Amino acid sequence: MAKGGKKGSLKAALASQQTRLKKKKEVEHAAQHEERIKAVVQAKVKAKGKAAPLRPTIPFTATDNILLIGEGNFSFARALVLHPPAELEFLPASNIIATAYDSEEECYKKYPEAQEIVAALREKGVMVLFRVDATKLDRFSALKERTFDRIVWNFPHAGKGIADQDRNILSNQLLILGFLGSAAPFLTKGPIPVVNKARKRKRDPDDDGPEEDEVEDTADTDRRNRGTILITLRNVAPYTLW
Ligand SMILES: C[S@@+](CC[C@H](N)C(=O)[O-])C[C@H]1O[C@@H](n2cnc3c(N)ncnc32)[C@H](O)[C@@H]1O
Fold first, then answer.
1. Per the database record, which ranges form the 25S rRNA (uridine-N(3))-methyltransferase BMT5-like domain (predicted)?
2. How far apart are CA 171 and CA 190, in angstroms?
3. Which of 32, 58, 114, 151 has its CA 20 to 30 A from that of 13?
């Protein structure tokens, strides 16, 4: 038998077994470490969420005159007037004009709940108007001589059912262009508002990452300025293209 024969191969097998065990332990340790890190990160995110909840964006002040365009079932107007955030609790209902493109009859047919909502809005003192074309606002006698701090159109959509994507996008772009031109003379005159101002986000003492800039909407503190137009859109294509 060669020197170290049986004894040698036993030693080698033992060494190989030990190496395998060591490797297995290392892998297990790495996996446990990864789990621990994940748990710590999750706990941090959770704690952060509790300590500093995201501030809601409230694009109005309690003294704004507001024109709402293209309301569907008037649920946005209802939220603003009947269930306002604390900051807008004293916003006078008479400061708000809520409009729909549909006739009153069409509106209630499409959205049966709108009848009750409109009645509640009117009772509160909101002026509700139907058949208001966003691109021809100067045609409405009720709007004559009035100016607004905010003219708002949530989710403009021509709704022409155009299947061709490019033509559909174009028709919505033209709608928005027409709206902007039509709405401009109805905006309160004044200096251009400072809408966004960057400020440093307060640093979490446990956070090792770099400091981030945060955009703060200072419109509420810097106005009574020139009125502004607010358009909201879904943040996905094709809506982002108009
Ligand atoms: C996607 S819906 C959004 C409805 C509502 N603003 C909302 O956010 O739920 C688009 C609205 O724009 C309206 N609209 C379409 N063309 C318009 C126009 N020329 N002037 C005013 N509103 C228009 C439609 O009647 C519809 O109510």
1. 67-242
2. 32
3. 32
Report which protein residue has its CA nearest ligand 1's atom 11.
Answer: 70
Q: What is the pLDDT of residue 196?
A: 60
Atom 13, ligand 1: residue with shortest CA distance: 70
Return the residue whose CA atom lies nearest to atom 12 of ligand 1: 70
Ligand 1 centroid, distance to 98 Cα (angstroms):
12
Strand partners, 230: 152
* Domains along the chain with CATH numbers: 66-192+221-241 (3.40.50)
* Atom of ligand 1 minimally distant from the CA of 153: 6
One-letter identity of residue 223: R
E-strand stretches of 116-195? 127-129, 150-154
Count, residues in the chain: 242
For residue 70, give the ligand 1 atom closest to its CA: 22
pLDDT 10s digits, 85-126 = 888 989 999 999 999 999 999 999 999 999 999 999 999 999
